[in-house]
Write a structure and sequence with these properties.
Blueprint lengths: L1 H31 L3 H19 L5 E3 L8 E7 L11 H25 L5 H24 L12 E6 L12 H26 L1
Antiparallel strand pairs: 1-2, 2-3
Helix pairs in contact: 2-4, 3-4, 4-5
Length: about 200
């Protein structure tokens, strides 16, 4: 009777240990935030595809309730932010190379430092990586206008906040991720710097 009870107790303990192990693994993956970059990247790809297939080039569509802030305007950009560099193959290649270098640097830094990074910094880096990868794919395919992709005319931009800020450039979800990520990173570094100075 005692042996049977011992065996049952052992099985319960093994099951509990498995549950704890699975829970720990899930938490590690969740708080690594490696899942965040692919999700944001997919959202970027889907929104660009929807914009390309449902909007008319150059025509602005108001969003009810948000018409004071943002509208949808389909454009194609072959340059950098605000079209800097224009339809210039050299600047396009340079932008591609910079995107690849930035992406590789972010991944390398994350792998090298992830054990000592805060959860917030991990999340910020994944937001930056998603924005960089979105732009990287756009610019790479935009180099090959004869390929049947949505980027044959250039990077797909559609978010237009000119109702709020006149003459502001039109951008996409990847640009938003990159901008927000970089701003968050700058703020994070300033706060960390202030805290270390106080110590």
């Amino acid at each position: 009777m005692s042996t049977m009870q011992d065996n049952n107790n052992k099985e319960i303990k093994v099951e509990e240990n498995k549950n704890i192990s699975n829970d720990t693994k899930f938490k590690k993956v969740f708080f690594s935030f490696v899942w965040l970059a692919p999700i944001l990247f997919i959202i970027d790809a889907i929104t660009k595809s929807l914009a390309y297939n449902n909007l008319t080039y150059g025509e602005s569509i108001e969003i009810p309730g948000l018409n004071w802030l943002v509208q949808l305007t389909l454009t194609f950009n072959t340059g950098a932010a605000w079209g800097i560099g224009g339809n210039n193959i050299v600047s396009q290649i340079l932008l591609c190379v910079l995107s690849y270098v930035a992406g590789a640097a972010l991944i390398y830094y994350y792998i090298k430092k992830h054990k000592v990074m805060s959860k917030l910094l991990k999340a910020i880096l994944m937001v930056c990586l998603a924005g960089d990868l979105g732009n990287l794919v756009d610019r790479t395919f935009a180099l090959f206008p004869n390929l049947p992709t949505i980027y044959s005319k250039g990077v797909v931009d559609f978010l237009d906040i000119t109702p709020l800020i006149p003459n502001f450039g039109i951008f996409n979800f990847a640009d938003s991720c990159l901008t927000v990520g970089i701003i968050m990173l700058i703020v994070y570094e300033i706060v960390i710097s202030i805290k270390s100075d106080k110590k």
